[in-house]
Every structure is written in structure tokens, then in C-alpha cells.
Amino acid sequence: MALSRVANQLKGCVPRVSTVLLRTSSSHAAPSDPQKGKVASEQVTMPDTLGHAVGPERWELLARLAGNEDPFEMNVKKRTKGTFTEPTLIPSLYDKRLVGCVCEEDAISIQWMFLHKGEPKRCACGNWFKLVELDVSKFGGQ
Q: For the chain, how far is it from start to end, CA to CA, in angstroms?
């Protein structure tokens, strides 16, 4: 009971901050309008899918409208040479990322490993991977 009372007291004290990162076709393009689809206008009488979307779904729709087909960086990346001197580069906003390697074309299992920023790592099949910082110049934001 006391825990819920403290949570209710803290509810108004913590400011909420949200950041929207959207990929644009060039670094000079303006970010997408966060109110797009939400505000009634003379042309639109009822909100469309974008107007009804909230949270991650809305962020994904806005990112796709801005030209980013992979807003969560979840698409499969093609391996490069995979040598120690030229590893496959994996972009990330964080210091570590879970990566899966399909070692052979007809493999039925995935080799999972954590990559840490700045440290190249070798998969069991011999391919090298390296975590690099995501190029945020391709993103616009508020």
C-alpha cells in the first residue's frame, strides 16, 4: 500500500522526455511533423492510420514516411569479407549489441554473440564482426 502511495506522489515529479529520430534522405531535410495525421484539417475529416497510431507504431510510420525502411535496424545485414582487417561492420547506438551469424547458407541454426563497441569479434565460422557507432547524420529529430 505504501509503495503505491509513493508511486502516485512521484508521478507528477518526473518529467517525461521523448525524442524522435527519423532518417531523412539528406542531412539537410527537415524532420517529419510529429502532429501529422493528428490535427483535423479541411481536407481530412477523420484521422488515417497515422492519426490513430501511438508509441513505437507511430514512430515507425513516421520513420517510413521520412524514407527509413528499417527504423529499428532489424534487417539482415550482408556479410562483407569478414577478415580481421576488414570485419563486417554492425551499426549501433549502444555499447553492445546481440548479433546472429548464419555461418553456412543452408544452416538451420544461428550463432549468437554479443559485440562490444571497439572490439572486433570472431564467430565460430571464422567471420569477424565489429560494432561501430550508428551514423546519426542520416537522422533528423526534434
A: 39
